[in-house]
Amino acid sequence: MTDATTLFHAERAGHTYGTGATAVVAVREVSCAVTSGARIALSGPSGSGKSTLLHMMAGLEQATSGSVDWGALDGHPAGRPDQVGIIFQGVSLIPSLNAVENVALPLVIGGMSYDEAQNRARDAIGRLHLESLAAKLPDELSGGQAQRIAVARVLAAGPKLILADEPTGQLDRAAGIHVVDVLVEAADELGAALVVSTHDPAIAARFASRWTMHDGILASVSPHDDDFTDRTAS
Ligand SMILES: Nc1ncnc2c1ncn2[C@@H]1O[C@H](COP(=O)(O)OP(=O)(O)OP(=O)(O)O)[C@@H](O)[C@H]1O
Ligand SMILES: [Mg+2]
After folding, report:
1. Structural domains counted in the chain
2. How far is the C-alpha of 182 from the C-alpha of 126, rounded, in Å?
3. Ligand that lies nearest to the alpha carbon of residue 14, given by its number in the listed order
4. Of 29, 191, 197, 225, whose CA is between 20 and 30 Å from 208?
């Protein structure tokens, strides 16, 4: 069951890559909901299925078993950065474009005029206090600065759900915490829900809801977690 605040809902959803002898079960029978305003950290060992689950939330990987839906969003979110914004694991800025152009690019691809997209990009960069980075190429940015520009790119599109896949993976803890602070700031500005995968317990500890994955199985380790509750059971 979904309601007006449910941005993503999974009911015994799984994802298997490939078929037959080479099939890999990445996510198994996950039941969860991400509701408006949620702040969720997703932890778990390498290969436990975090990226796959985030890609399912973004509509980039299908549920190969069970079901998923995006009740309060405007249809299927794939290719809709105004609905779900995702920061992928690893570097995601285009090397030949400066920071403003990187932030503006998805808006232009989405049909916005070049000038309007640039204005919107500058606005998002300003809202995150990153003006000094606006004209820099990705090569001229530190890892943490590049990730904060990637957050500005998500903010500019104005999604209702922000997904960040190990945005702090390549950073020291201080830089990682700064990136997470900027992510939370962006989510607060938009009134968006936020799901962040991380290996760092200190970063996970900053989130009200803490979910863990082991071998494709999802569990909550935070008390009183309404988002994790299997709403289909009620
Ligand atoms: N495109 C793919 N094709 C086949 N198998 C895949 C693919 N992507 C991921 N897998 C497998 O699915 C499982 C889950 O991978 P996933 O990337 O979701 O884990 P993860 O928790 O994000 O790991 P990490 O912490 O290393 O990023 C792993 O066994 C992985 O090898
Ligand atoms: Mg991953």
Report:
1. 1
2. 12
3. 1
4. 29
CA of residue 71 to ligand 2 center, whole Å:
26
Task: Give the CA radius of gyration of the chain.
Answer: 17
CA of 50 relative to ligand 1 center, distance in Å? 8
CA-199 nearest atom, ligand 1: 25
Inform me whether the pLDDT recorded for 183 exceeds 60: yes
Q: Note the pLDDT of residue 171.
A: 86
Domain annotation covers residue 67: yes
Closest ligand 1 atom to residue 27 Cα is: 14
CATH of the domain at 39: 3.40.50.300
What sign has the CA pseudo-torsion 229, 87, 146, 216?
positive
Is residue 1 in some structural domain?
no
Angle at 159 (CA atoms; ends 146, 184), nearest 5 degrees: 55
Does 19 map to a domain?
Answer: yes
Q: Which of 22, 25, 27, 52 to mutate to test the pocket of ligand 1 (most atoms within 8 A of CB)?
A: 52
Residue nearest atom 29 in ligand 1 by C-alpha distance: 47
Beta bridge partners of 68: 10
Domain that holds residue 107: 6-233
With cut-offs at 50, 70 and 90, classify the pLDDT of residue 231: very low
Across all residues in the chain, what is the average pLDDT?
Answer: 91
**Rounded-to-integer distance, Cα 60 and Cα 83, Å:** 13
